[in-house]
Structures are given as structure tokens and as C-alpha cells.
Design brief:
PH-domain like, about 40% helix, 4 helices, alpha+beta, four-stranded mixed sheet, 9 strands, elongated, single chain
Length: about 160
């Protein structure tokens, strides 16, 4: 079962990582996050550890606080793994990373460049793009299909500069 999940999560080649959705007459393009194997291992080991602690809290020690904290942690990590996505809707880029939501006006995007910065970002991969927007703001994301993602942004804002 785990081998099947690993195959579909990391090695499937039949999807480009984006889809079109029509909601209320508005066409939205949704890009999933690229997921690195090492990040999946870290997240799923943490989820397994939290499940073990939950089991201990629920059935061995009857610790209500432990149960609540572990349910929140398991849900949070699951939400990050399954719901990290980037949606282009009208002239806005919506970034979803677990409970974190951010909206960026596409007209405010100045430049995009590739980066492998390992620091915290709404991304599940080290292979990222850095988006510079506003006056001095940046965010790093990792759409599965970077060329299609950047192309869609450039359709909405042809003044976006591409670096490296």
C-alpha cells in the first residue's frame, strides 16, 4: 500500500501538476506543489510519531491535553501535505499552505527567479521560484509545472522579469 502511494505521489508522469476549474463563470488555474521525497519522509515520520503519541495519550495514559495537541498536529501536517497549492484567479495569485493563505495581485509582481533556498516557505520542495512583488516583498513557492505557472502569470502581467 505504501509503495503504491509513493509511486503515485512521486513518480507519476501523466500529470503536469495543474488544472482548470470554472467557478461562477471565472476560469481558475490551480497548480499543485512539487513534493520532494525527503520532505515527504520528514512529514510522514512526524505524522507517524504524532499518531503514536496520540495512541499513548488516548489509550495508555488518558491524557486529554495530549490527545488534543496530537490531533491538531496531525491535522496541521496533513493539511500542509495535501492542500499546498497555488491558484491563479482573475488577476490574483492565491497561495494556500496548510492554514496559511496569501493573496498577491499579479500586477504587483516585479520578477521571478529560480532558487533552491532551503529556508521556510509555502513549498514542499527545495526546487522553488522566488516571486518579488510590491515594494520589497518576496515569497518562495514550488509549483509542480514551473514553466506553465510562470507562463500563466506572464499572460496576466507581461512586465514580469525573469531572472536565471
Amino acid at each position: 500500500m505504501i509503495a503504491i502511494w509513493i509511486y503515485f505521489e512521486f513518480f507519476k508522469t501523466n500529470t503536469r501538476g495543474h488544472s482548470y476549474k470554472h467557478e461562477g463563470g471565472v476560469e481558475n488555474m490551480v497548480f499543485t506543489s512539487r513534493k520532494d521525497l525527503w520532505m515527504g519522509i520528514v512529514i510522514w515520520i512526524l505524522i507517524a510519531a504524532f499518531i503514536w503519541i496520540f495512541y499513548q495519550s488516548a489509550f495508555v495514559q488518558m491524557n486529554i491535553l495530549g490527545i488534543v495537541v496530537m490531533v491538531v498536529m496531525i491535522y496541521s501536517l496533513g493539511t500542509v501535505w495535501f492542500n499546498t497549492r497555488y491558484k491563479i484567479e482573475n488577476n490574483t495569485l492565491h497561495i494556500s499552505y496548510g492554514f496559511i493563505k496569501k493573496a498577491i495581485a499579479i500586477q504587483d509582481i516585479k520578477s521571478i527567479r529560480k532558487t533552491t533556498n532551503p529556508f521556510v516557505a509555502p513549498s514542499l520542495s527545495i526546487h522553488r521560484i522566488e516571486i518579488n512583488y510590491g515594494k520589497y516583498e518576496t515569497i518562495q513557492i514550488s509549483p509542480k509545472d514551473i514553466p506553465a505557472f510562470v507562463g500563466e502569470l506572464q499572460k496576466k502581467n507581461p512586465y514580469i522579469q525573469l531572472a536565471n
